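Quick entry, no commentary yet.
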Amino acid sequence: MIITQTPFRMSFFGGGTDFPDFYREHGGAVISTTFDKYCYVNVRHLPRFFDYSTELSYARTERVKRVEDIEHPAIREAMKHLDMHEIRLTYEADLPARSGLGTSSSFAVGMLNAFYALKGKYADKRKLADDAIFLERVLCNESGGVQDQIAASFGGMNWINFNAEGYTVNPVIISPERKKLLNRNLMLFFTGFSRFSSDIQVAAEKNLKSKQNQLLEMLSLVDDAEKILTSKTDLEEFGRLLDYTWQLKRGITDKVSTDSIDAVYSRALQAGATGGKLLGAGGGGFLLFYVDPDKQENVRKALENLLYVPFEFENGGTRVIHYTPESYEPVNA
């Protein structure tokens, strides 16, 4: 039996510049962090007592005799790609899917990590990120960027750079005290609105050419944000920059925000938030705000109809938290 734990991520700056069609021509970069909300993937071989050979439990339950009959595209394609058979897989998560925190990519990374471990093979963080990108973007043909898979694999607060040759992952060098201060000044709220990010990603991908100037400016903000984090600049500038990049992102496609989200955002700013943004592709999910401690109670009251979610940054990325090797012989061996 294998159990993996994989964190979710919040992306601060550069989202949209991680689309291959953009960064292969212009370069790309994001600053993001993982935090202490996780998904768990439990995988073992299914005992041969049943009239099905694979059992999957996620938002629903699937029991099938053939891998090709699996309806969940990522599980089906991952099992075919890694030649997995007779599997029992269970997925659990601390936060809901379709919420802008890279949940599907965290699941893909955690599942691949578990599959490799079940086969007795070691996969390092870069291989897991690369395989998850290949799984989601090629095998499943899903639209979107590639930052989520990298963040979930590597963990921590990173400055990820993209170019035609690939990507590099650079930890943001920030003192423990300053990092704690940033964490303390960030507030996370669940809007309750969920959406399929792929729908928004398709629209965003279509606008890469027409919105090139906005994306190039969003790319330049990554350097500005890194300088704020790694210098002695007042961290409130980080909050102001969040607001600015959110306004730019809203212009990429009209699917990014809604009237309801705009109203919530305005209430938070009126209550004292310096700035913020909707996490993920847009359309719903989680709102992140930078708020000085003396104004946080006001913001919580202003958004009392939303779920407030305390969190702490984490540094580990995906990991195997339980490993019990199994002896497995294929039926036709």
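second:
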Amino acid sequence: MSNKPEKIHFGQVAYKFEVSQGLVDRINAKCETLDDKTTAQNYLVGKIKNEYHFLEFIEEIDTDLEIKNSIYHVVDDCPQDKCYEIEEIDMNSAWVNDQYENEYQGVHTHSGKEDLGFSSILFLKVPDFGKEITDTGDPLNGKTELIGNCGGIWNCPTHLITPKVGDFYIFPYDMQHVVYPFNGNGMRRSLVCNFDITRNKKYSMKKGKRHEYNK
């Protein structure tokens, strides 16, 4: 895994890591050998038939703590209100998307047991996305687009992701995103993990000075 992620600023901040091929291979191998792929469709919005739970296998396959260390780095590095201190980081859900031709995910956000947290996408298999319907604009087949909470003239609120095996993106729960469909017989596989953040109020401001909360 690369030591320093790429920080992507477009109103909010997203992070891009590169995980090892070993981690990718372990996840793919686990997916291929699962006898019972418990569907996750009952709480997901994607128009994808093969979405299945994976949380119980994360500890088994993340032997070098690449996923865990990446989210801890993001929580330590991201802009935040210093009046709070982080109490707990909890991976509350994880699932795999095996996406095929014409399947897609509309614009959506994520959440967990808490409203405050981060989601992530790890690309595991990337097929040929096929010919675009037109040659106008940027190619979109099979790509993910992040939509930051910002706007206004001379501003770019989106970031278009071209999936690459091993690329691991982490972004806030409330960052909207969309996954475009593609053409062809291949399979686009990704692992999605959600991390709840719980925190305590450490300081408050009184008469322009910082005080310990409730004192």
